[in-house]
Amino acid sequence: MMALWPVHIGQELLLWGALSAVSLAGATLILKVLRMVASYAWTWQQMRAVPTLPGAYPFVGHALKLKPDARACHQDIYKGIDMRGVNFNVSKVNSVEECQKRCTDSIHCQFFTYATQTFASVEHRNNCLLKHSPGGTPTSIKVLANVASGFSLKPCALSQIGCHMDMFQHLAFSDVDVARVTTPDAFVCQTICTYNPNCLFFTFYTNAWNIESQRNVCFLKTSQSGTPSSPTPRENTISGYSLLTCKRTLPEPCHSKIYSGVDFQGEELNVTFVKGANACQETCTKMVRCQFFTYSLLPEDCRGEKCKCSSRLSLDGSPTRITHGRQASSGYSLRLCKNEDNSACGTKTNLRVVGGTNSTWGEWPWQVSLQTMLTTQNHLCGGSIIGHQWVLTAAHCFDGLRLSAVWRIYGGILHLSEITKETPFSQIKEIIIHPNYKISENGHDIALIKLEVPLNYTESQKPICLPFKDDANTIYTNCWVTGWGYTKEKGEIQNTLQKANLPLVTNEECQKRYRDHEITKQMICAGYKEGGKDACKGDSGGPLVCKHNGIWHLVGVTSWGEGCARREQPGVYTKVAEYRDWILEKTQSQDGQSLKSRA
């Protein structure tokens, strides 16, 4: 490619080289940029977790104690620096800020260089060069007078491009593959795509895909236009987009879920014997080179209560193969997760719902069953423990049933059949309906329950964290809805607590599917475009919870929807972050102490 800048005397610095003879000021500036570039690249490299190879030293210098920067947001402008890469667009602009904005709003731009009005070549003054590279960072850096460089602000949630949070079941994207990794589900695939500097969208082939070699394979993709050119209907695939251009906090770059009945294969790094899959994950996390693990439950792999824990790694940081139907549990190192606070809320013992699966004991310890005592005793709604004496639920659960005496609240249960006359329950002291509530479809479908007697927290009964108000703009990817409700529209209440993993849907996309209703900022939507999983009758008031920075947060309260799990009809939930002030006001005024917003 022809150089767009005239050649000037200067010292080019390759990222894998060492500093050479440049001025002290130039060297200092380059070192500053190098540190920033290292931080920028840290998350993707750690997501891939490529093991150090003998003789491979990308940087020469002192070690930097880099901490994970999930967004790698760098707004600084670096004067006198030319960041080199592939120049794919050049235009005239009036300022470096305008150049940075153009880069931020260009789907392929990762960094840029701007020639100021005092640049030596009159022809090239005010040129804005948009650039990219295979690694997302400059391939080389040059000290050059009267230029300025910087990075796209997409990771700062400042892009105007917009984003697609939907996932599309049974739909495959074609175009150019930039990478191929093995992942256990589409959510991990999407997170990896988001942090890959060149991935714009992806297609994940599920374990039910007919070609064995492509099962659980995540194809990271790009295209010249920035969008998929020819989506193709294809069974047992899930497709979606990178979340980099969303105006929200990105999902944390770690995968904390433990997958039961699954074997993650890779190079064996270490074998030890521990008690439980969580202990195995902790063992992997403490080993610097461990990227993922498998905890075997085969009789021959166990010694008493302890079983074989295999710490593993691979060249790209992902399992080389994922095998289902094994007596094992697998997962990833938690090195990229923020440290988890061990306070009570938002933690669980283990790692209305259509298309869901059975939960396990202690998996959702904040879930409660709201039951009425009329002619018979029946489960009517779900709810979430948010404090020793407080439960959060939907206001519509109390339509026509405002009398506290008819209600019983059961916590710490998995099977409704466990409930007998001897089973402990809580009685309601007060029901607090949001003052603006009329009907669920109009919003404000939220209510607080004050219990007669405070709850004791146990492993199977503990609170969920409330999100902060700022969390309204956080992108969550690990979200679950739980309840004992119907598993199909014309079904019945389930005995075992059900769970379903659902992607969130933007309010703009949700509004398109509910043209007869207003989707307000106090609502949040979740569900697959193809349907199949959803909340349903009996799940109302229950939690939509999402894990972020190692802690579970109560993001939504199950409210309403058109049918259950219908195509292009996502479930609508009350957005808890929008009611945080109201919740704290009511709970503090009642008992004089504040609820924990989060752990």
Automatic annotation (TrEMBL):
The answer to whether keyword Aminoacyl-tRNA synthetase applies is: no
Domain named Apple is located at 73-156, 163-246, 254-337
Q: Which SUPFAM superfamilies match?
A: Trypsin-like serine proteases
Looking up Pfam families in the UniProt record yields: PAN_1, Trypsin
Q: Which is a Gene Ontology cellular component entry for this protein?
A: extracellular space
> Tell me, which GO biological process terms does this entry list?
blood coagulation; proteolysis
Q: What parts of the sequence cross the membrane? A: 13-34
PROSITE patterns named among the record's database cross-references: PAN (PS50948), TRYPSIN_DOM (PS50240), TRYPSIN_HIS (PS00134), TRYPSIN_SER (PS00135)
Give the record's keywords alphabetically: Blood coagulation, Disulfide bond, Glycoprotein, Hemostasis, Hydrolase, Membrane, Protease, Repeat, Secreted, Serine protease, Signal, Transmembrane, Transmembrane helix, Zymogen
Q: Which domain of life is it from?
A: Eukaryota
**Compartments (UniProt record):** Secreted
Query: Where does the Peptidase S1 domain lie?
Result: 353-588
Q: Name one GO molecular function term.
A: serine-type endopeptidase activity
- Tell me its family: Belongs to the peptidase S1 family. CLIP subfamily.
Q: What is this protein called?
A: Kallikrein B1
What species is this protein from? Equus caballus (Horse)
Q: Which gene encodes it?
A: KLKB1
